[in-house]
Write a structure and sequence with these properties.
single chain
Length: about 140
């Protein structure tokens, strides 16, 4: 005769001990998948050929992206916003740093010069009519 097992929802101490011993005695799976020291996994010839051949369009996309960044930086020279000009130049130089170090250095130099020029011009322009809110707050605090 078949006995029916009724689940009461409570776990006994014996069941907990059995489950914990079972978990401790079973080896973890990742340790079985590791290679012994000194052995390297063999890469299939098909996979090796995919690794060595880069995407042929990747070089074109990279060159196009670099030219876009450089043209954006060249366009930034004509910006009338004195705060935006050095920001765009500096970000363009940051993007180009790994791809074209020489151009990036020149852009950083231009960004620094634009920031200095903007600081000098902005002080004379804004202090005549309406000083910036930060200047007003500093004047009130002192």
């Amino acid at each position: 005769m078949l006995t029916r097992i009724v689940y009461t929802g409570k776990v006994t101490l014996l069941e907990l001990i059995c489950i914990s011993l079972l978990c401790l005695l079973l080896p973890p799976r990742p340790s079985l998948a590791q290679n012994p020291p000194g052995e390297t996994p063999q890469v299939k010839a098909k996979e090796r050929s995919n690794i060595s051949r880069p995407d042929p369009m990747e070089d074109e996309r990279r060159a196009f992206a670099i030219s876009l960044v450089i043209s954006t930086a060249d366009e930034a020279r004509s910006y009338s916003d004195l705060a935006l000009r050095p920001r765009v130049l500096a970000r363009s130089a940051d993007v180009l740093w790994n791809a074209d170090n020489i151009t990036a250095r020149a852009l950083f130099r231009r960004a620094w010069e634009a920031a200095e020029k903007g600081d000098a011009e902005e002080i004379t322009i804004k202090t005549k009519d309406n000083p910036p809110p930060m200047v007003i707050a500093l004047r009130r605090a002192s």
